[in-house]
Amino acid sequence: MKRASRVVFSVFTAIALLYVVYFMPLPLYIFKPGTAEDIHPMVHVKQASEEKGKFMLTTVQVADATVFGYLMSYIRPYEELRLKRDLLRNNESEAEYSQRQEVVMLTSQADAIQAVYNRLKIPYHISKDGVVIQQVYPNVPAHDLLQAGDTLVKIDDKPIQTMEEVRGGVAGKKAGDTVSVSYKRKGVIQTKDIAVAALPADPSAQQPADAAPAASRVGLGVVLAELHSVKAESEEQQVTIQAGDIGGPSAGLMFSLEIYNRLAPGDITKGYKVAGTGEIDPEGHVGVIGGIQHKIVAADRAGAEIFFSPADYKAPTGQTIPNYSDAKKRADELGTKMTVVPVATMGEALDYLAKLPAKTGS
Description:
This protein has helices spanning 2-22, 67-72, 94-120, 163-170, 252-263, 292-301, 324-334, 346-355, and strands at 28-38, 43-45, 54-64, 80-83, 124-136, 151-155, 158-159, 178-185, 188-195, 197-198, 218-219, 222-232, 239-241, 273-276, 279-280, 286-287, 306-310, 313-314, 320-321, 339-343. By secondary structure, the protein is an alpha+beta fold. The chain folds into two domains: 33-64 and 94-123 and 235-355, 2-Layer Sandwich (Ribosomal Protein S5, domain 2); 127-227, PDZ domain (Pdz3 Domain, Roll). It has a six-stranded mixed beta sheet with strand order 4-1-3-14-17-20, with helices on both faces. Strands 5, 6, 7, 8, 9 and 12 form a six-stranded antiparallel beta sheet that branches. Strands 2-13 form a two-stranded antiparallel ribbon. Strand 8 and strand 9 (188-195) form a beta hairpin. Helix 3 packs parallel to helix 5 and helix 6 (292-301) crosses helix 7 (324-334). The protein is flat. The model is unreliable at 202-207 (pLDDT under 50).
């Protein structure tokens, strides 16, 4: 009996150790090189086009760290450990973080389309597509009813298209008053009576975006984002993007180059494999991003010949946020033949491509 008990104890101890080492998540993420994805299949335009080369967006793979992964990160090249709390804002959950990344990706796509329409002087208008919840604050009645990803449809039978309309829907309410909230979740519209709550009065803290403008400071206690799309006046020039599960804002520059190539005459790839990264705004300015040292590795593994990197940004305070310098350093470590090109605007990237000779054999 004692021998059998020792065997059982040993088995359970071994299982517990395996779980702790290989499966129990730590409060850390592991960042590592992701993939370089061909953008052409993601961008849809009625105008016919031909590309001899390709534009590629680059990604960073993010995984939960376990004890095993933590230890291996010191052996495997190009892996980086980061505390989860450095990425999760204001106590947001990982699901809410993923939703935020989805929203900023959609915004990035719209900004890329708008930047190209502006440069090519294509007439367009902005369509309001609703308000989506990114985070629900704890300790408010809405926390048990609403969740990240819900799209608000109505408040007390008043249609919702903007955050200002959400604020107006709770204006004049007192903490404990209820409002009828209609929201769409996975394509299904639901309606619930939800009590509004008193919200923090600290002006320096990030506030729920639905806070009423009145001094009462009440609201549902949710962080919101407005969704919009860019509509060309001509259906032939309408651009849509389907990027699957890729999130974050950093594909904006590369989307804009692909869109430009589909709408402008000629093929600006000239037969080259062009990867890159960088946020973009509707005026075509390129913003710095995180994880560029991992994206350089992904691009090199995919055989990219050119990599567009945001130029290092010097803030008004004098602080420099590196992007190109980090990318160039990692490229030198790799010994890659890939050319790393710093750009501050979409126009600079287009000018660089315009000066390239067509690739031999393309």
